[in-house]
Amino acid sequence: MEKNDRINKRKRIPRAKVKLELEVWKMGQLVCGVDEVGRGCLAGPVVTSAVVLHAGKRFELLKDSKLLSKEQRVRAAKWIKQHSWYAYGIVSHSEIDRYNIYQATMRAMKRAVMHVISQMTCLPARIIVDAMPLKLDGWLNDIEIMYFPEAEQASVSVAAASILAKEKRDELMNVYGRIFPGYALAQHKGYATSTHRKLVQQEGRSIIHRVTFLKNFNEILEEHYEQQIELFSGSD
Q1: pTM of this prediction?
Q2: pLDDT per residue over 164-178, tens digit each?
Q3: How many domains, in total, are found in the chain?
Q4: Could you tell me the CA-to-CA distances from 99 to 87, 96, 167 in Å, in that order?
Q5: Is residue 82 situated within a structural domain?
């Protein structure tokens, strides 16, 4: 084993920060973190999660879900469910095609927030969202909402939401993988991998593929095909 390999194996994955939560917890109030998984996929739903951690609760695996192994995510998800109020908001492939990916994701986030608030006896004082400018109406309009890129690294609440959303969507895609065995959905979870693209070309789309995403995908393929024709037709 090379020296650099040994160093990399010992490198610790940074925890999400807790400053944004501490500012609220010290006033006896709560924070809701919101994140999504699956926006860039060719198939399946977008899953969002809203998590309100019990004040002061910390756990070493509250980190961006993309930085955790499957085993670590399972451990973290179990802990989160025991130490928080949490809920999911899910939009199907058909809703994504109907509303567009941005609007559909916003709908999913609102559902998650409304569901988690319905479990609580008081409103969270702050909602932190990864990237999306979430807006709430009516009696929820007074809640402070913060949104910025990579919020899952700046907030333990958003990190927790990213973990639950990832685990829930993976679970759903594993089920879809058994229903539609020709697409290897359990392997790539619906993302536009080379394997997935090849299988779509071979099998055609399933009923959970996003038509609007495949339309863009087919246009890219067509453009690539025309470029190849032009390239080879011009050679002697």
Answers
A1: 0.86
A2: 999 999 999 999 999
A3: 1
A4: 22, 5, 25
A5: yes
